[in-house]
């Protein structure tokens, strides 16, 4: 099943597109290989499972030649990066490129150290399909700069990173998504904003990592429309957060209800709640 394409600049078809993509994930159960950090593994795996995808936390370089070709998409997250893991990340990305599989990069805290910045630049050279980060990460990666950061937290609003995101997209060939109060998505020319979500999601560690895994799942079922898949995944995850917040008392209960809400999303929820618009 390939969801029907829509014009990138038109907001009217986004809701049906998002539902078609979520339905495709549920019916196809794409296998998503995640080379990710220790903090995010649990929530990321449960996010993928609740959406209908199949997660695999395979990071040993010994297994990559056998496993990566069978994955429908690869997700690389550098949150707890170490010299031991970087060769496996690069080998998996190279193999994904060679076999025509989409892969997604989350350059966590890319500007925090020279080692981390160099590693992410090397990964960007391996042609990720999508790069998703917060505003500070996208700005740092676009400018290839090292400087003070707040770890995984952003010191910039997503809207402040639009030009950096467009520049990074043009330079890398990737769709670039900037998470924030409004999630910004660009292919280097067109820009849309996904307005779903609640502020409390920022108080749960690994929600950014997890939505990037969901992007990988959406791109896996429609790799020729990565722009639409990226925006739709961000919106759907935000909707789950909105619905979960109605039942939550704080971050811990929101985490539980977020997963439950993503699992239970139906067509009416998606069609009535998706809020993706052209960005100026």
Automatic annotation (TrEMBL):
Pathway(s) it belongs to: Cofactor biosynthesis; thiamine diphosphate biosynthesis; 4-methyl-5-(2-phosphoethyl)-thiazole from 5-(2-hydroxyethyl)-4-methylthiazole: step 1/1
Reaction catalyzed: 5-(2-hydroxyethyl)-4-methylthiazole + ATP = 4-methyl-5-(2-phosphooxyethyl)-thiazole + ADP + H(+)
Listed GO MF terms: ATP binding; hydroxyethylthiazole kinase activity; magnesium ion binding
EC number from the UniProt entry: 2.7.1.50
InterPro entries per the UniProt record, alphabetical: Hyethyz_kinase (IPR000417), Ribokinase-like (IPR029056)
Annotated GO biological process: thiamine diphosphate biosynthetic process; thiamine salvage
Keywords assigned: ATP-binding, Kinase, Magnesium, Metal-binding, Nucleotide-binding, Thiamine biosynthesis, Transferase
Physiological role: Thiazole kinase involved in thiamine salvage pathway.
Family: Belongs to the Thz kinase family.
Protein name per Swiss-Prot or TrEMBL: Hydroxyethylthiazole kinase
UniProt source species: Juglans regia (English walnut)
Gene: LOC109009794
